[in-house]
Specification:
The chain is mainly beta. The protein has a single domain, classed as Neuraminidase. The chain has 2 helices and 24 strands. Strand 6 and strand 7 form a beta hairpin. InterPro entries: 6-blade_b-propeller_TolB-like, B-propeller_Phytase.
Length: 351
C-alpha cells in the first residue's frame, strides 16, 4: 500500500510539473464551433476531405497516435463515423483526390505509421486499406521514424506525390518525396523521386503542407523557422525559396494549414504551439514577392499545444459557409472553427 501511495504521489507531482509548463488558453481565445468526440489515446493531425457531390457531407480525418491507434473519420458535427484498421503510432495524415487505381479515380488519405516505418494509404471516405500493408520509407537510413506528410498533386498530369518527414535526418536531404502509383493490381506503391530540405538540427521536422495550386511545399523546422520549396520534383530545383517566422514563435513551429481563395490569395496559419495561438501569413506573399512572408496576425485559439491543423475555403454549409479551420488539441479531440471568426481577427490586426 505504501509503495502504491508513493507511486501515486510521484505521478501527481510529475503531471503537475508538466501541466505547469503549458501556457493557459488566453481569455480572448476563440471558442470552437464544434469539438469532436474524444479519441482513445492522443490526437495529432487532421485533414479535411471535401465530398464531391455534397460538400455538407464532407469529413475530417484525424490520427490517434498510439501503438494501437488508427485513423478516424468525423462528420461536420464532430461525431466519429468510421475508423481504419489498427495502426502502430500513426502520426500525420494528408488527403489527395483522384489517384488512378485499376483505371478508376480514388480519393485517398495517406498516413505515416511511425513504429513500422511505413506510409499507409486508405480510400475515402470508407478508410479501407489500398497498400497491401504499407510502403516502407527512408529505406537504408539510420534515422527513419516517419512523422510529417503532405501530398502534392501535379496539375499537368495529376501525378500524386507524398512529401515525408521524420524524427531526425541530415540537412539537405531530410525530406523524401515519393510518387504514388498503381502496381498494376490496384495496390498503391511508392517510388523515391527526390530528397531535399534544409534542417537546423534544433529539434525535428513534423509539420508539412503543400499548396497544389501555387506549387509550393512548406515545413516547420521546429524552434528555428518555416521553410519553403518548390513542390514539383520535375523542376529539379531544391533551392530554398524562403525561411520565415524565425522571431514570431514562443518555441515550436508546428501544424500548418493553408486557407486558399480562388484568386491565388489566402493565408498560411501556423501553430505557435506553446503560446496556444496561430500565426498568420499571406499565402501570396508580400510587396509583390511571393516568397516574402511577414506575420499579419496572431489568432488565439482554445487549442492546447496544437500539433496539426487544416483549413478549407469551400462552403460546407451550416456554420461553415465561408470555410472551416480544424486543429488538434490536447484532450484527445479536434476543434472546428467557423472561418468568419478567424477572418474577423485577421482583418482587425492587419496593417
Amino acid at each position: 500500500m505504501k509503495n502504491k501511495f508513493l507511486i501515486a504521489v510521484v505521478a501527481l507531482i510529475t503531471f503537475s510539473s508538466c501541466s505547469d509548463k503549458l501556457a493557459p488558453v488566453r481569455k480572448d481565445a476563440l471558442k470552437p464551433t464544434i469539438v469532436t468526440q474524444k479519441l482513445p489515446h492522443d490526437t495529432d493531425d487532421p485533414a479535411i476531405w471535401i465530398n464531391p457531390t455534397d460538400a455538407s457531407k464532407s469529413i475530417v480525418v484525424g490520427t490517434d497516435k498510439d501503438t494501437d491507434g488508427g485513423l478516424y473519420a468525423f462528420d461536420l458535427q464532430g461525431k466519429i463515423i468510421t475508423k481504419s484498421e489498427v495502426l502502430q503510432r500513426p502520426n500525420n495524415v494528408d488527403i489527395a483526390y483522384g489517384l488512378l487505381l485499376n483505371g478508376k479515380k480514388v480519393d485517398v488519405a495517406v498516413v505515416t505509421e511511425r513504429e513500422r516505418n511505413m506510409l499507409r494509404i486508405f480510400s475515402l471516405p470508407d478508410l479501407q486499406p489500398l497498400d497491401n500493408g504499407g510502403i516502407p520509407v527512408f529505406d537504408g537510413e539510420a534515422a527513419r521514424d516517419p512523422m510529417g506528410i503532405a501530398l502534392y498533386t501535379r496539375a499537368s498530369d495529376k501525378a500524386i506525390f507524398a512529401v515525408v518527414g521524420r524524427k531526425n535526418g541530415p540537412s539537405g536531404s531530410y525530406l523524401w518525396q515519393y510518387e504514388l502509383v498503381d502496381n498494376g493490381q490496384g495496390i498503391v506503391t511508392g517510388k523515391v523521386v527526390r530528397k531535399f530540405g534544409n534542417y537546423s538540427g534544433k529539434k525535428e521536422i513534423e509539420a508539412i503542407a503543400v499548396d497544389n495550386e501555387l506549387g509550393y511545399v512548406y515545413y516547420c523546422d521546429e524552434q528555428f523557422g518555416v521553410r519553403k520549396y518548390y513542390a514539383d520534383p520535375a523542376k529539379n530545383d531544391n533551392t530554398e525559396l524562403a525561411l520565415f517566422g524565425q522571431k514570431d514563435f514562443k518555441s515550436d513551429h508546428e501544424g500548418i494549414a493553408i486557407y486558399k481563395k480562388q484568386d491565388g490569395k489566402g493565408y498560411l496559419l501556423i501553430s505557435n504551439q506553446q503560446a496556444n495561438t496561430f500565426n498568420v501569413y499571406a499565402r501570396e506573399g508580400e510587396n509583390g514577392n511571393p516568397n516574402e512572408h511577414i506575420r499579419l496576425a496572431e489568432i488565439p485559439t482554445s487549442t492546447i499545444e496544437c500539433d496539426g491543423a487544416d483549413a478549407t475555403a469551400v462552403n460546407l454549409g451550416g456554420s461553415f459557409q465561408n470555410g472551416l479551420f480544424v486543429a488538434m488539441s490536447n484532450g484527445m479531440t479536434f476543434q472546428y472553427y467557423n472561418w468568419d471568426t478567424i477572418q474577423k481577427i485577421i482583418d482587425s490586426q492587419k496593417k
